[in-house]
Specification:
By secondary structure, the protein is of the alpha+beta class. It contains 12 helices and 12 strands. The chain has helices spanning 2-18, 44-54, 79-91, 93-100, 127-130, 180-187, 199-203, 276-283, 299-302, 305-321, 330-337, 361-364, and strands at residues 37-39, 63-74, 104-108, 118-122, 134-140, 143-149, 154-155, 160-171, 212-229, 235-250, 253-266, 324-325. It has an 8-stranded antiparallel beta barrel. A hairpin with a 2-residue loop joins strand 5 and strand 6 (143-149). Helix 3 crosses helix 4. The chain is globular.
């Protein structure tokens, strides 16, 4: 059968050449572009299996996203001045349009303050802090949400950062300690809804080493939304802005605290319920998800219109408020200010050699394919 197909292919090629037709080139398979946000479309049966076998959940569907975010540093003494500037934009539509563009406005949100400490976990020697990564547990309504931001962030001089964020709900953890079932889930690197599946590749260590309580963080946030009119005349959220009074404490000495100010602006956000637009994009995409740490380098994703718009808004509002680039995560800053050094070495990221069948033509020919680096970025050890 294979020999017959081979002779038939050669015959067709020869016939097309004799007749003056060029042979049809076979197009290379194009990988689908990741979306900004992903939610695991988990079936009821799989969700019940996850809960029964591993103890994750309730609502065991995991999420991931590319997080384009402005991380600005703010002098706490100047925080009232920045809140006044944002309140003026919220109260004056003409002023908002003059600053942000026609059809834009700023809306102040009346969110109840969260009087809850977020727990940040790490290895005893601070492997995540050393690579500007973070692993957070946030408790809400009797359920813990675990949130992982891996190494690989791309940071810009104005304070913008491209990071990947992944998360899933787990039963309430005591002092960061996972149940054996949940730890089994986190160690299974074949489960695509496991938000920690890349830890062994990224850090060369077992996932069980990363659950040492490192820093607790509480934030007093003043929240705003930047909205724009769509073609149907509806106001659509374009970015979320927060002015944060951040307090970090040492879990081993609860009386030892430090405080600092932050301004954050981020684009599309993963919430418990995706927006109709996000649901439509996910349903119509051939991309299966979830995001990988390396997606911060995916030019088709980070060069999208949504990300470019977030950069524009960050430049405009960051400049209006006069914030400076923080350069590090809140976890890393809080840890530094508490005098808790990260002594872990930064390991190389372990990668597999590409198989010949799936390699690109250049790689098959033995030519190194250089990664495309975004312009005007500063890439550190993270």
């Amino acid at each position: 059968m294979n020999r017959m197909f081979k002779h038939l292919s050669i015959g067709l090629f020869a016939a097309s050449t004799l007749l003056g037709f060029a042979p049809v080139a076979v197009a290379e398979e194009v990988q689908p572009v990741p979306l900004m946000v992903w939610r695991h479309q988990i079936s009821d049966g799989v969700e019940k299996q996850r809960i029964a076998k591993y103890g994750v959940g309730p609502f065991a569907d995991s999420t991931s996203r590319l997080e384009p975010e402005l991380q600005g540093s703010v002098d706490l003494a100047k925080m009232p001045q920045l809140e006044k500037l944002m309140d003026e934009l919220s109260a004056d539509g003409a002023r908002s349009e003059s600053l942000l563009g026609k059809g834009y406005r700023v809306v102040k949100l009346n969110k109840a303050p969260r009087d809850v400490w977020d727990r940040y976990l790490d290895t005893p020697d601070g492997q995540l802090a050393a690579t500007n990564s973070s692993l957070r547990i946030r408790s809400e309504n009797g359920t813990d949400q675990i949130n992982f931001k891996p190494r690989g962030a791309v940071r810009f001089p104005n304070g913008m950062a491209h990071r990947v964020e992944l998360g899933v709900n787990i039963p309430a953890a005591t002092n960061g300690k996972m149940t054996p079932g949940v730890m089994k889930f986190f160690r299974n690197t074949k489960l695509r809804d496991n938000p920690l599946r890349e830890i062994p590749k990224l850090y060369g260590r077992d996932v069980g080493e990363f659950f040492e309580q490192a820093v607790d963080i509480k934030q007093q946030r003043t929240m705003y939304e930047v909205q724009a009119l769509d073609v149907g005349g509806n106001w659509v959220k374009k970015a979320e802005v927060s002015l944060d009074r951040v307090t970090a404490r040492d879990p081993q000495d609860l009386n030892r605290t430090v405080s600092f100010g932050r301004m954050e602006l981020e684009g599309e956000h993963v919430s418990l319920q995706l927006t109709p637009e996000q649901q439509a994009k996910l349903a119509g995409s051939t991309w299966k998800g979830p995001h990988r740490a390396s997606d911060t380098q995916n030019q088709a994703l980070v060069g999208s219109a949504d990300v470019k718009e977030t950069h524009r808004l960050a430049d405009v509002l960051g400049g209006h408020l006069g914030v400076t680039a923080a350069g590090v995560s809140k976890y890393a800053q809080g840890r530094q200010m508490l005098g808790k050094p990260a002594t872990a070495k930064v390991p190389p990221i372990r990668t597999r050699a590409p198989r010949a069948l799936g390699a690109t033509p250049r790689a098959q020919a033995g030519v190194a394919v250089k990664p495309v680096r975004p312009m005007n970025v500063r890439q550190g050890r993270n």
